[in-house]
Amino acid sequence: MAAAFYYQYRNQILFSVMAGLLLAVALMQGLSVSLTILNLCLISAIMSLGVNIQWGYAGLFNVGVMGFAALGGLAGVLISMPPVSEAWQAGGLGILLGLIITTGTIAAALYTWSQVRHLTKQRYWVIAGIIILGYALLRIFFDPGVVAIEAIDPSVTGYLGGLGLPILVAWPVGALFAAGIAFVIGKIALGLRSDYLAIATLGISEIIIFCIKNEEWLTRGVKNVNGLPRPVPYEIDLQRAQWFQEWALDFGMPVDDASAVFVKICYALLFIAVIAVLLWLSETALKSPWGRMMRAIRDNETAAAAMGKDVTWQHLRVFILGSAVIGVAGAMMVTLDGQFTPTSCQPLRFTFLIWVMVIAGGSGNNWGAVLGGFLIWFFWIEAEPIGLWLMDVVTSGLPSTHWLRLHLLESAAHTRLMTMGVILLLVLRFSPRGLIPEARR
Amino acid sequence: MSFLLGEHMTGGYGATDILYDCSIGVEKGEIAVIVGPNGAGKSTALKAVFGMLPLRQGRILFNDQDITQLKPEERVLRGMGFVPQNQNVFTSMTVEENLEMGAFIRTDPIADSIAQVYELFPILKDKRKQSAGELSGGQRQQVAVGRALMTHPKVLILDEPTAGVSPIVMDELFDRIIEIARLDVAILMVEQNAKQALEIADKGYVLVQGHNRFTDSGEALLANPEVRKAFLGG
Amino acid sequence: MADILNALTLLGNFLIIPGLTYGSQLALGALGVTLVYGVLRFSNFAHGETMAFGAMITILVTWGLQSVGVSIKPLPTALIAIPIGIVVTVILALGIDKVVYRFHRERKANPVIFLIVSIGVMFFMGGLIRFVIGPGDQIFFDGTRFILKAREFKEITGLNEGLSLKMTQAVTIVTTLVIVTAMFWFLNHTRTGKSMRAYSDNEDLALLSGIDPDRVVMVTWIIVAALATIGGTLYGLDKSFKPFVYMQLLLPIFASAIVGGVGNPVGAVAGGYVIAFSELILTFAYKKVLLYLGPDNLELDSLIQFLGTDYKIAVSFIILVIVLVIKPTGLFSGKTI
Questions:
Q1: What is the pLDDT along chain C (337 residues), one digit of tens a residue?
Q2: Which domains does chain C have, with CATH numbers?
Q3: Contact status of C119 with chain A (Cβ, < 8 Å)
Q4: Cα→Cα distances B105→A157, B108, B140, B164, C206, Å
Q5: How far is B98 from chain C (nearest CA, A)?
Q6: In this structure, are strands B186-190 and B31-35 parallel, antiparallel, or unpaired?
C-alpha cells in the first residue's frame, strides 16, 4: 500500500523531502545559508542535466565536466569585464596576429590533410611540418604581446579584460565555448572505445584548467578576476533604497540580512527560469522521435547502426549539447560568485560529484538528474558539519587533547569524499537505475 | 549405448527452445558428423553436449556416467575436448604456449603430448615460436585442434573445423582428423561441407530446426536420394 | 670538444636522467593500468589513488621504522617498508574486488559501468587517504641525497657543467628495471603468468582450458597492487608525497598505456618512457645547449623552449590525441596482455 503510494507520487514525495531539507536548514542555520545551498543546488542540477543528456540519453561518459564548466566561467569574464584599453594597445595586435596565425595553421593543416590523401606515410610529416611552422610563427608574434599585456598594472589588471557586456550574455556564450571544445574532442574520441572518450575528456579538462591558470593575459590566472558585474542589485544599493528599508521593516528583518536574502532570491529566480527552460527542452527532446532514436542507439548500437543510423554523428551531437548545458552552468556559477577563481576548479568537486548526482538521481531521467543535483549537493555541503558532529560524538570519551580525537576532528572533512564514493558504489550495486529511474516507454 | 551420448536434448538460451528432443551419439574411434541447413541447431547441439547450453530435458552420458550437471571445465577433466568455431586460439601467444594452455589442467609433464601434436601437425613444429595470430587460417585450425588434444581427450568435439579454409587445406585437415580417430578417440563434429564430411563419417546426423531428421552411417546418408536432394545439393 | 661534452652533460643532467626516472614511474603505473585493462577489461580510474594508498602505508611504516632508529643508509628506509605497504595494499585491493567489482563482474556489466565503479572506488580511497594522512605534503626520504654531486662531477671531469645523480633517481631506475624484468619473466615463463595472458587474450577459450578466472583475477590484483605501491612510493620519494598529485598522474599514466597499446605490458613500459621523454624534450630550454654547440658569437634572447614548463601535462594529452587520431590501438597494438 505504502509502496504503491510511493511509486505513484514518487517525484512529488522526493522533491518535497528535498524542500523539507532546505527548510530545515533555513530554520536551523538561517534563511541565508539555506538560499546559498539552494542556489548551488540549482547550478549543480543544471550540470547534472548536461551530464544526463550525454550519459542518460546516449551512454557517453564525460569525465571533463570541470573543464566545460570552467569554459563557461571564462565566458563570464570575457563578456562582462570592462576591456583594459592599455593592454589592448600594448599587446592586442600580437594576440590578434596570434589568433589569425593559429586559425590559419589549423585551416592549412586540415586543407592539406584532405588534399594529400594519396601520400600515406608522408602526410603525417607534411602536417607536422605545417603545425611546427605555424607554432614557431605564433610564438614570434604572440609572446611579446603576452609580455606587454601582463606588464600593464599587474596587480589590478595585467590582462585584456572583456567586452563589458551584461553578464547574462555570457550564459549562452559559455554554452558556445563548451560546445566548440566538445566538437573537437568528440571528433577525436567518439567512434572509438567508450573509455577513450572518458580519458580524452579527463585530459582536455585538465588542460583547460591549466591554460586558465597560466594564460594570465586572458584570465589573470591564479590572481583571479574579481568584481564581475551582477545581473541583480547589489546589497549596498538595496540597503540605501528607501523602499527596501520599509520592506525589510515589514518583514521584521534587519536591513543587512534582508538585502542578502533578497539578492539570493533574485539569483534563485534567474536560475529557476534557466532550469525550467532546460528541463522543458530536455523533456521535449526525450519524448521526440529523436529521443527515441537516441535511446535505441544507446541500448543497441550495432542494431541501430545496421538500421542506417549514423551512430557517431548522433553521439557527437548529444555530446555537444550536453557540454553546452554544462557550459551554461559554469557561466552561471561565476555570475553567482561574482568572481572567477581558477584554483577552485577541482575535478573531485565538479566532475566526479556531478557523476554521483546523475547516477544517484537516476540516469536517463531529467527529473532524476535534477533531484540528484539537489540532494547530492545538499549532502556534500552538509556532510561537513554532520561529519564533524559525528566525530565529536564518537570521540567524546577521549580527553579533548588526545591525539586520536584531534586527528579525527581534523580529518572529518575528508569523510565526505569517502561518503560520496560509498554512495556511488551503493547506488550502482543496489539501485543502478537511481532514485527516479528512467521511465520505460 | 554410445560412448558419448546426448539423449532427448531439449533446450535453448532464452524462452524459446532451439533443440527439440535431439539425440546424438558417437563411439570410440568413430567419426560422427552433424550436418543440416543454417539455423538447424548444429552448433547448439554440440554446445549442449559440452555443457554450454542449459537443457530443459534430456541428459548427457559419457563413458556410462551421467554428466548432465557438469560444467564444461569439469567435462574437460573427464576427458572431453572442444574446439570452438571462432576465436579458438590465443592469438597473442605462441603456438607452443597455446598447446601449453591446452594442457593447463594437467599436472604431469606435457613434453610428450606436445611432441605428439607436432608429429600430427609437423608444420606447427616449425612455427612453434610464432604467435598464433600470425598463422594462416588452416594452420590456426591445426593449433586449435592441437590445443584440444593436449589433455588426451577420449572425445574430441569440433565445431566447423574447416570453416574458411581452402579445399586443399580442408582435405588435409580431414586426413588428420581420421588419424586422430584411429588413436581410439571419438570425434563429433559439425560441418558446413556436408558431402566431404559425410565421406569420412562413420555416422551422420541430419538436423532440421532442432529435430533429428535422418540418422544413419555416413555412406548411407550419402546414398539416400532424399538427403542428397535436400541437403547435399543433388 | 669540451663544448660538446658540456652540452651532452647538460642534456644528461636535465633531460636523460630525469626522463629515465619519470619514465620509470610512469611505466610502473601504466603497467598496472594495462594489466587491469587486459584481465578485468576496464580503465581503472582508481589506479592513481591505489598508488597513493600504497605510498601512504609505506610512509607510515617508514616513519615507524625511523622512530625506532632503523636505517639502511645510504639507501632510503622506505625501501624496507615497501613490502609491508604492498601487503596492506594487496589486502585492500582484494577486499575492494570482493566487495565491489566482483558483483558487477558476475553480472557481466558493461565496461563503462566498471569505469564508473572505479571512480566510486577512487573517491573512497581518496577520502581514506586524506582522512588518514591529510592532504598535505609528506616527507619521508632519508639516506644519502646524492650519489654523484654536480660539483664532484665538475672537479673530476673539469667541465663547466655538472652531472648529478640523486639517490632517488638511481633507486627508481634500478628498481623499475628489476620489477619490469621480473614482471615479463613472470608473464612469459610461468604457468600462472601464461594463464593470465591466455585469459586476457580469449576469456572463453581460457575457461575451456580449465583456467580458473577467480584465480587469474586475484593474481592480477595482487600484482597491480604491488606495482602501484612500488610506483607510488618511488614517485613520492623522488618528487614528494601529496595525495592530489597522484590523481594528476592519472592522465600521463593513461596516456602511456594507450600510446603503447592498452592491455600490452611491453607497450605500457615503452609508453611510459615515450610520454616522459616527450614531456621533457618539449619543455626543455635548449638555450645553454645551443650556446655550447653554436658559433662562439651566438646570442640568444629566448630560452629556446617549445612549451612552457607549466604545460608538461598538455604534452601527454597532445600525444594521446595524436595516437587516438592516427593509431588508436597504440604502438604495440594492444588489447590483450
A1: 778 888 888 899 899 999 999 999 999 999 999 999 999 989 999 999 999 999 999 999 999 999 998 888 888 999 999 999 999 999 999 999 999 999 999 888 888 889 999 999 998 999 999 989 988 899 888 888 888 888 888 888 888 888 899 999 999 999 999 999 999 999 999 999 999 999 999 988 998 888 889 999 999 999 999 999 999 999 999 988 998 889 889 989 999 999 988 888 889 999 999 999 999 998 888 888 888 887 777 777 677 778 777 778 888 888 888 888 888 888 876 554 3
A2: 2-326 (1.10.3470)
A3: yes
A4: 73, 9, 22, 30, 11
A5: 8
A6: parallel
Element (H, E) at A370: helix A366-394
- Domains of chain B in start order, with CATH, are 27-40+77-231 (3.40.50.300)
pLDDT at residue A384 is higher than 80: no
Check: CB of residue B127 under 8 Å from CB of residue B139.
yes
| Residue position matching grid coordinates 531539507 | A21
**All cell numbers assigned to A105:** 595553421
Amino acid found at C22: Y
User: What is the CB-side half-sphere exposure of residue A139 using CA atoms within 13 A?
Assistant: 12
Measured between CB atoms, does A428 come within 8 Å of chain C? Answer: yes
- A362, A80 contact by CB (below 8 A): no
Q: How far is A418 from chain C (nearest CA, A)?
A: 4
Q: Is A425 on the interface with C (CB under 8 A)?
A: yes
CA-based radius of gyration for chain C: 21
Q: What sections of B90-212 are H helices per DSSP?
A: 95-102, 111-120, 122-126, 137-149, 167-182, 194-200
Angle in degrees, CA B141, B69, C97, rounded to 5? 80
Helices (H), ranges, C202-212: 203-208
